[in-house]
Design a protein that fits this description.
Blueprint lengths: L2 H37 L5 H21 L3 H20 L3 H23 L5 H10 L1 H25 L6 H29 L1
Helix pairs in contact: 1-4, 1-6, 2-4, 3-4, 3-6, 3-7, 4-6, 6-7
Length: 191
Protein backbone atom coordinates (compact mmCIF):
# COMPACT_ATOMS: atom_id res chain seq x y z
CA UNK A 1 0.00 0.00 0.00
CA UNK A 2 1.53 3.33 -1.01
CA UNK A 3 1.37 6.47 1.10
CA UNK A 4 -1.55 7.98 -0.86
CA UNK A 5 -3.65 4.79 -0.49
CA UNK A 6 -2.78 4.68 3.21
CA UNK A 7 -3.95 8.30 3.68
CA UNK A 8 -7.22 7.51 1.86
CA UNK A 9 -7.76 4.48 4.09
CA UNK A 10 -7.15 6.57 7.21
CA UNK A 11 -9.49 9.31 6.05
CA UNK A 12 -12.14 6.68 5.19
CA UNK A 13 -11.86 5.30 8.75
CA UNK A 14 -12.19 8.83 10.10
CA UNK A 15 -15.17 9.46 7.85
CA UNK A 16 -16.86 6.29 9.09
CA UNK A 17 -16.27 7.26 12.72
CA UNK A 18 -17.52 10.78 12.04
CA UNK A 19 -20.57 9.43 10.20
CA UNK A 20 -21.83 7.80 13.40
CA UNK A 21 -21.20 11.01 15.32
CA UNK A 22 -23.13 13.01 12.73
CA UNK A 23 -26.06 10.58 12.66
CA UNK A 24 -26.42 10.34 16.47
CA UNK A 25 -27.78 13.85 17.23
CA UNK A 26 -30.12 13.56 14.26
CA UNK A 27 -31.28 10.22 15.69
CA UNK A 28 -32.22 11.74 19.03
CA UNK A 29 -34.07 14.55 17.24
CA UNK A 30 -35.89 12.08 14.93
CA UNK A 31 -37.01 9.90 17.86
CA UNK A 32 -38.33 12.87 19.82
CA UNK A 33 -40.19 14.14 16.74
CA UNK A 34 -41.70 10.67 16.10
CA UNK A 35 -42.82 10.48 19.75
CA UNK A 36 -44.37 13.96 19.63
CA UNK A 37 -46.10 13.23 16.31
CA UNK A 38 -47.71 10.22 17.95
CA UNK A 39 -48.66 12.27 20.98
CA UNK A 40 -50.45 14.78 18.74
CA UNK A 41 -52.09 12.24 16.40
CA UNK A 42 -55.88 12.53 16.68
CA UNK A 43 -57.64 9.40 17.95
CA UNK A 44 -61.24 9.05 19.05
CA UNK A 45 -62.29 8.16 22.58
CA UNK A 46 -63.30 4.56 21.72
CA UNK A 47 -59.93 3.85 20.10
CA UNK A 48 -58.18 5.46 23.06
CA UNK A 49 -60.16 3.40 25.57
CA UNK A 50 -59.43 0.18 23.63
CA UNK A 51 -55.71 0.97 23.43
CA UNK A 52 -55.47 1.79 27.14
CA UNK A 53 -57.31 -1.45 28.02
CA UNK A 54 -54.86 -3.45 25.89
CA UNK A 55 -51.87 -1.73 27.49
CA UNK A 56 -53.27 -2.55 30.95
CA UNK A 57 -53.93 -6.17 29.94
CA UNK A 58 -50.58 -6.83 28.32
CA UNK A 59 -48.14 -4.62 30.16
CA UNK A 60 -49.27 -2.70 33.24
CA UNK A 61 -51.11 -5.59 34.92
CA UNK A 62 -48.11 -7.84 34.26
CA UNK A 63 -45.75 -5.23 35.71
CA UNK A 64 -47.97 -4.66 38.76
CA UNK A 65 -48.18 -8.43 39.38
CA UNK A 66 -44.47 -8.44 40.07
CA UNK A 67 -43.80 -7.38 43.63
CA UNK A 68 -40.04 -7.58 43.98
CA UNK A 69 -37.75 -4.87 42.70
CA UNK A 70 -35.69 -7.35 40.68
CA UNK A 71 -38.80 -8.84 39.04
CA UNK A 72 -40.03 -5.41 37.94
CA UNK A 73 -36.58 -4.46 36.65
CA UNK A 74 -36.35 -7.71 34.69
CA UNK A 75 -39.82 -7.23 33.19
CA UNK A 76 -39.14 -3.64 32.07
CA UNK A 77 -35.66 -4.54 30.83
CA UNK A 78 -36.89 -7.51 28.78
CA UNK A 79 -39.58 -5.40 27.13
CA UNK A 80 -37.13 -2.62 26.23
CA UNK A 81 -34.44 -5.11 25.27
CA UNK A 82 -36.65 -6.84 22.72
CA UNK A 83 -37.54 -3.49 21.19
CA UNK A 84 -33.90 -2.38 21.02
CA UNK A 85 -32.77 -5.60 19.33
CA UNK A 86 -35.31 -4.97 16.56
CA UNK A 87 -34.04 -1.40 16.31
CA UNK A 88 -30.50 -2.59 15.61
CA UNK A 89 -31.39 -4.52 12.47
CA UNK A 90 -29.97 -3.08 9.25
CA UNK A 91 -32.55 -1.67 6.82
CA UNK A 92 -35.63 -2.52 8.93
CA UNK A 93 -34.29 -1.26 12.24
CA UNK A 94 -34.56 2.45 11.66
CA UNK A 95 -38.12 2.15 10.27
CA UNK A 96 -39.08 0.00 13.26
CA UNK A 97 -37.53 2.56 15.63
CA UNK A 98 -39.52 5.45 14.21
CA UNK A 99 -42.71 3.38 14.23
CA UNK A 100 -42.10 2.28 17.82
CA UNK A 101 -41.52 5.84 19.03
CA UNK A 102 -44.56 7.09 17.10
CA UNK A 103 -46.74 4.34 18.56
CA UNK A 104 -45.49 5.16 22.08
CA UNK A 105 -46.68 8.71 21.50
CA UNK A 106 -50.09 7.50 20.27
CA UNK A 107 -50.37 5.32 23.38
CA UNK A 108 -49.56 8.28 25.63
CA UNK A 109 -52.21 10.31 23.80
CA UNK A 110 -54.73 7.51 24.47
CA UNK A 111 -53.98 7.75 28.21
CA UNK A 112 -54.50 11.52 28.06
CA UNK A 113 -57.92 11.05 26.42
CA UNK A 114 -59.04 8.35 28.86
CA UNK A 115 -57.71 10.16 31.94
CA UNK A 116 -58.82 13.78 31.44
CA UNK A 117 -56.87 15.03 34.47
CA UNK A 118 -53.66 14.62 32.41
CA UNK A 119 -52.77 17.23 29.79
CA UNK A 120 -50.34 16.81 26.91
CA UNK A 121 -48.02 19.41 28.39
CA UNK A 122 -47.96 17.73 31.81
CA UNK A 123 -47.38 14.35 30.10
CA UNK A 124 -44.45 15.76 28.12
CA UNK A 125 -42.97 17.47 31.18
CA UNK A 126 -43.36 14.35 33.32
CA UNK A 127 -41.94 12.11 30.58
CA UNK A 128 -38.84 14.21 29.96
CA UNK A 129 -38.18 14.96 33.64
CA UNK A 130 -37.53 11.30 34.46
CA UNK A 131 -33.89 10.19 33.95
CA UNK A 132 -34.96 6.76 32.69
CA UNK A 133 -36.63 8.43 29.69
CA UNK A 134 -33.37 10.06 28.67
CA UNK A 135 -31.40 6.85 29.17
CA UNK A 136 -33.87 4.94 27.00
CA UNK A 137 -33.90 7.70 24.41
CA UNK A 138 -30.10 7.74 24.21
CA UNK A 139 -29.94 3.92 24.08
CA UNK A 140 -32.57 3.77 21.34
CA UNK A 141 -30.76 6.55 19.47
CA UNK A 142 -27.53 4.55 19.60
CA UNK A 143 -29.39 1.53 18.19
CA UNK A 144 -31.05 3.73 15.54
CA UNK A 145 -27.68 5.25 14.60
CA UNK A 146 -26.06 1.84 14.26
CA UNK A 147 -28.96 0.58 12.16
CA UNK A 148 -28.64 3.55 9.80
CA UNK A 149 -24.86 3.22 9.74
CA UNK A 150 -24.93 -0.51 8.97
CA UNK A 151 -27.54 0.09 6.26
CA UNK A 152 -25.33 2.76 4.64
CA UNK A 153 -22.28 0.50 4.82
CA UNK A 154 -24.20 -2.41 3.29
CA UNK A 155 -25.61 -0.18 0.53
CA UNK A 156 -22.12 1.09 -0.30
CA UNK A 157 -20.82 -2.48 -0.10
CA UNK A 158 -18.30 -1.46 2.54
CA UNK A 159 -17.02 -3.80 5.21
CA UNK A 160 -19.18 -3.94 8.28
CA UNK A 161 -18.18 -6.28 11.06
CA UNK A 162 -20.51 -8.03 13.44
CA UNK A 163 -18.19 -6.85 16.24
CA UNK A 164 -19.60 -3.32 15.89
CA UNK A 165 -23.12 -4.67 16.20
CA UNK A 166 -22.25 -6.75 19.28
CA UNK A 167 -20.49 -3.82 20.98
CA UNK A 168 -23.43 -1.56 20.23
CA UNK A 169 -25.83 -4.18 21.57
CA UNK A 170 -23.83 -4.46 24.82
CA UNK A 171 -23.81 -0.68 25.28
CA UNK A 172 -27.53 -0.34 24.51
CA UNK A 173 -28.54 -3.24 26.75
CA UNK A 174 -26.40 -1.95 29.64
CA UNK A 175 -28.05 1.45 29.38
CA UNK A 176 -31.51 -0.12 29.22
CA UNK A 177 -30.81 -2.25 32.31
CA UNK A 178 -29.72 0.84 34.23
CA UNK A 179 -32.78 2.68 32.93
CA UNK A 180 -35.06 -0.17 34.06
CA UNK A 181 -33.59 0.09 37.57
CA UNK A 182 -34.28 3.83 37.69
CA UNK A 183 -37.77 3.38 36.24
CA UNK A 184 -38.58 0.68 38.80
CA UNK A 185 -37.41 2.92 41.65
CA UNK A 186 -39.64 5.67 40.28
CA UNK A 187 -42.64 3.32 39.95
CA UNK A 188 -42.21 1.81 43.42
CA UNK A 189 -41.84 5.27 44.94
CA UNK A 190 -45.12 6.40 43.34
CA UNK A 191 -47.09 3.33 44.49
Amino acid sequence: MNKNEEENYTSLKDLIKNLRLRIFPLSIFALIIALLLGLFTPIDRDQARYLVEKVYETYISELNAREKFSEKVFFIFMHNSQVSIMMLLPVMGFAFTLFSMYWSGVTMHAFIIVQPNISRISMIIQLFSVPSTWLELIAYSIAFTESLYSTIMLAKKKNYTIVNLILTLLIVESMLLFSACIETLYIMKKV
